[in-house]
Specification:
Layout: H1 8-16, E1 23-25, E2 45-46, E3 50-52, E4 62-66, E5 73-75, E6 87-97, E7 99-104, E8 112-115, E9 120-124, E10 137-140, E11 147-154, E12 159-164, E13 167-173, E14 185-187, E15 198-207, H2 213-218
Antiparallel strand pairs: 1-15, 2-5, 3-4, 4-15, 5-14, 6-11, 6-15, 7-8, 7-14, 8-9, 9-10, 11-12, 12-13
């Protein structure tokens, strides 16, 4: 029986926390929308997107999004992406116009990574229950240039961190919460949204634990050197 102190979903997340990814979507022409982690999550739905040159310099190793309502990528969530207590989200981004990069809950508020202006990266770890929002992490990155970004949250410490190109750029105590990760993930455009991202994305990774800076750096080129399952 789960206690009143530790919920069933929290206990499951604690017992299954791993430094292996719960999902890896390379987002390239070879893998299309497939998850290449050992979890074999359902494939992403690709809206109006197009293969483009990626951060490895190779053609068609990323996807271009076009700042339109139908230009999106949606990831189903059958439970593996519902990390509940702790999380790391890593991705490569080449921003051109602001909009949602990673947004749990296509119709509303969930854990989110956005470009809120041409240069401002915005991360918010949204509570699973309750309406009070946590304080966001905000940092400037260069437009029309590739950046490797990672956002982490660890429930046992209540600390959120943001890394850009392997460097810790923001750290904030947001409290011990459960995460709103119990939704599908939308990239590029929310349903009935008003802002739509333009730019390229590659190598989207999810973990159910907060990776360290060294672990994040070690996974920087994960999608660009192997075929078949990543892990």
């Amino acid at each position: 029986m789960c206690s009143l102190i530790i919920s069933c979903e929290s206990l499951f997340s604690i017992l299954t926390a791993s430094y292996n990814p719960v999902a890896v979507y390379p987002l390239n022409v070879l893998t299309k929308g497939r998850d290449m982690s050992a979890r074999k999550n359902p494939s992403a739905t690709l809206g109006s997107v197009r293969p483009a040159r990626g951060p490895d310099g190779k053609p068609r190793s990323s996807y271009q999004l076009f700042s339109r309502p139908n230009s999106y990528i949606q990831l189903p969530n059958n439970g593996a992406l519902d990390t509940v207590n702790s999380i790391t989200i890593s991705l490569w981004v080449y921003p051109q116009k602001p909009g949602p990069l990673v947004n749990y809950n296509p119709k509303g508020q969930g854990v989110q990574i956005w470009m809120v202006s041409r240069t401002q990266l915005f991360v918010r770890f949204v509570r699973r229950r309750g309406r009070r929002l946590t304080s966001p992490l905000i940092y400037r990155i260069y437009p029309r240039s590739w950046s490797y970004i990672s956002a982490t949250y660890k429930q046992s410490t209540g600390v959120a961190r943001l890394y850009v190109n392997n460097r810790l750029v923001k750290r904030k105590v947001i409290g011990k919460i459960q995460l709103a990760t119990n939704y599908p993930v939308r990239i590029g455009a929310k349903i009935k949204g008003t802002r739509f991202f333009k730019g390229r994305l590659a190598c989207l990774q999810f973990y159910n634990t907060a990776l360290t800076g060294r672990q994040i750096a070690a996974r920087k080129k994960m999608c660009f050197k192997t075929r078949g399952n990543i892990v």
